[in-house]
C-alpha cells in the first residue's frame, strides 16, 4: 500500500502534496493495519459541518464519519458535557450503577418507545447482543431448536463474527469461516421469500429499515409491516438494525417509525454518541428475562462518559428539532440530487433515501471511487455505498446553504467525469 501516492482504488486529492504525506502518513504506512483505504491527507480539526486537514485545507463534511457526528464537529454542548463529565466520573463498570447511565436508559426508552436498554460500544456489539437475546429468549422457554434468524441479501450488520454471519454480502464473510450456523438470507423487500423461509425454528427476522452500506436502499412501502405480521404469525421476533437509520437520521427517532412499525428489539449506535463511541440494544419488557445476570455483558458499556455524551446528543436533537431538520434538509438534498441526475444522465441515474441518509446512483460504467475522488478534490467528503452509490450522511445540523454548496460542488465534480461507454 502506498498512501503517499494513491491507495488502491482511490484517486489522489488535489492537495496530496509531498509535504502532506510526510511524518504522519509514513507512520500510517508503516504501523497501521492496512485494512482501510484512506486518502493521503490527515484530518486535524472540525467545526460544525467543516473539517480541516493538517495543511489547513477545508472540507465540507457530508459524511459525518459514517453517519455518526450527528451534531457536527466540536458542538459546544457536547464538548462541555464531555469535559465536565470526564472531570467528575468516567468509568466504574457495570458492577455498579452510574447516574448518567440510568438517566440515559430512561430517556432513550422514552424517545424510542422501548422499555429497557443494554449498553455497549458499537453497532456490531449491539447486533451481537440482539442476536443473543433472540436465541436465549427461546432457549429459556424450552425451545432450544428455535434459533434460526432470517436476514437479508445486501444487509450490513457489522464486522464481528456473529454480525458478519448476519451480513448479507458474501465478501464480508470470505475467509472467516466457518460461519455462524442458523442464518438464512433472502432478497430484501421480497415478502414471499420471507414467508417461504419462515418455520417453527425461526427465532427472529433481522432487518434494516433502510439498507445503508448496501447502497442506501429504503425498504419498499409496507415491507416492514409485512415482516411484523409474519413474525407474529410464526411466534418469532422482529429485530431492527437501526444502527445507521436511528437517532434522527431518517427524520424520526427510529427509521421504522416512518412505517409505523414496532420491533421487539432494536440495535442502535452511530449517531447516538455524536462521535463518542456508544451502542445500545433496546427491547420490550417481555424480553427482559431472556438475558439474566451473567449471560451477557460489556466492560465499557454504558460508562458515565459515553452516557453523558449520548444524553446531550438526545437533548440537542430534541431541543433543536433535528429530526424535523433531517426531514427538511433531506428533502432539499434529495431534490438537488435528483436534479443533478437529470442534468448529468451519463454519470448518474437517480437518487434515493430517507431524511439525511441519501444516495446518488451512478450510471453503469462510472467508477464510484473515481467519482468519490473527484468530489473530494472539490472539498466535499462522501462515501461509497453498495457498488454504485455515492452516500450522503451529513450531520443533522447541516444548513440549507451547506447542502446547496455540497450539491454545487458534487455537480461540478461529476460533470468533469467523461461519459461512460
Ligand atoms: C446497519 C448497520 N449495522 C451495524 C453496523 C456496524 O456498526 P459498527 O461499525 O459500529 O460496529 C453498521 C455500520 O456501518 C451499520 O450501518
From TrEMBL:
Per its record, the protein catalyses: N(2)-acetyl-L-ornithine + 2-oxoglutarate = N-acetyl-L-glutamate 5-semialdehyde + L-glutamate
The gene that this protein is the product of is: argD
Any idea what this protein is called? Acetylornithine aminotransferase
**Cellular component GO terms, alphabetically?**
cytoplasm
UniProt region (Disordered), positions on chain: 1-21
Q: Where does it localize?
A: Cytoplasm
Q: Which protein family is it in?
A: Belongs to the class-III pyridoxal-phosphate-dependent aminotransferase family. ArgD subfamily.
Report the principal subcellular site.
Answer: cytoplasm
List the Gene Ontology MF annotations in alphabetical order: identical protein binding; N2-acetyl-L-ornithine:2-oxoglutarate 5-aminotransferase activity; pyridoxal phosphate binding
Amino acid at each position: 500500500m502506498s498512501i503517499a501516492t494513491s491507495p488502491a482504488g482511490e484517486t489522489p486529492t488535489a492537495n496530496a502534496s509531498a509535504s502532506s504525506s510526510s511524518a504522519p502518513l509514513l507512520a500510517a504506512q508503516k504501523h497501521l493495519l492496512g485494512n482501510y483505504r484512506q486518502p493521503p491527507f490527515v484530518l486535524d480539526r472540525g467545526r460544525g459541518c467543516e473539517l480541516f486537514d493538517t495543511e489547513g485545507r477545508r472540507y465540507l463534511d457530508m459524511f459525518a464519519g459514517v453517519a455518526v457526528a450527528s451534531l457536527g464537529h466540536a458542538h459546544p454542548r457536547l464538548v462541555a458535557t464531555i469535559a465536565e463529565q470526564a472531570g467528575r466520573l468516567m468509568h466504574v463498570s457495570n458492577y455498579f450503577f452510574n447516574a448518567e447511565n440510568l438517566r440515559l436508559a430512561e430517556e432513550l426508552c422514552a424517545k424510542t418507545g422501548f422499555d429497557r436498554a443494554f449498553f455497549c460500544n458499537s453497532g456490531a456489539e449491539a447486533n451481537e447482543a440482539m442476536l443473543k437475546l433472540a436465541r436465549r429468549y427461546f432457549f429459556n422457554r424450552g425451545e432450544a431448536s428455535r434459533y434460526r434468524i432470517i436476514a437479508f441479501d445486501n444487509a450490513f450488520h457489522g464486522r464481528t463474527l456473529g454480525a458478519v454471519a448476519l451480513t448479507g454480502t458474501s465478501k464480508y464473510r470470505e475467509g472467516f469461516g466457518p460461519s455462524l450456523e442458523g442464518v438464512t438470507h433472502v432478497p430484501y423487500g421480497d415478502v414471499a421469500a420471507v414467508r417461504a423461509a419462515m418455520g417453527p425454528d425461526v427465532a427472529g427476522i433481522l432487518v434494516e429499515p433502510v439498507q445503508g452500506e448496501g447502497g442506501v436502499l429504503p425498504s419498499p412501502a409496507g415491507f416492514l409491516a409485512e415482516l411484523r405480521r409474519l413474525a407474529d404469525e410464526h411466534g418469532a421476533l422482529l429485530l431492527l438494525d437501526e444502527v445507521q437509520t436511528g437517532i434522527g437520521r431518517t427524520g424520526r427517532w427510529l427509521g421504522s417509525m416512518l412505517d409505523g412499525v414496532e420491533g421487539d428489539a432494536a440495535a442502535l449506535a452511530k449517531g447516538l454518541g455524536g462521535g463518542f463511541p456508544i451502542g445500545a440494544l433496546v427491547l420490550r419488557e417481555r424480553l427482559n428475562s431472556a438475558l439474566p445476570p451473567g449471560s451477557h455483558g460489556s466492560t465499557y458499556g454504558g460508562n458515565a462518559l459515553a452516557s453523558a455524551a449520548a444524553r446531550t446528543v438526545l437533548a440537542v436533537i430534541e431541543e433543536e428539532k433535528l429530526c424535523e431538520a433531517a426531514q427538511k434538509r433531506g428533502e432539499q438534498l434529495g431534490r438537488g440530487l435528483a436534479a443533478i441526475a437529470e442534468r448529468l444522465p451519463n454519470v448518474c441515474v437517480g437518487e434515493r433515501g430517507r431524511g439525511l441518509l441519501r444516495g446518488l446512483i451512478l450510471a453503469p460504467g462510472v467508477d464510484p471511487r473515481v467519482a468519490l475522488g473527484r468530489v473530494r478534490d472539490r472539498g466535499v467528503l462522501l462515501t461509497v455505498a453498495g457498488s454504485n452509490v455515492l452516500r450522503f450522511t451529513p450531520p443533522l445540523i447541516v444548513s440549507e446553504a451547506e447542502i446547496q454548496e455540497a450539491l454545487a460542488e458534487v455537480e461540478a465534480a461529476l460533470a468533469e467525469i467523461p461519459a461512460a461507454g
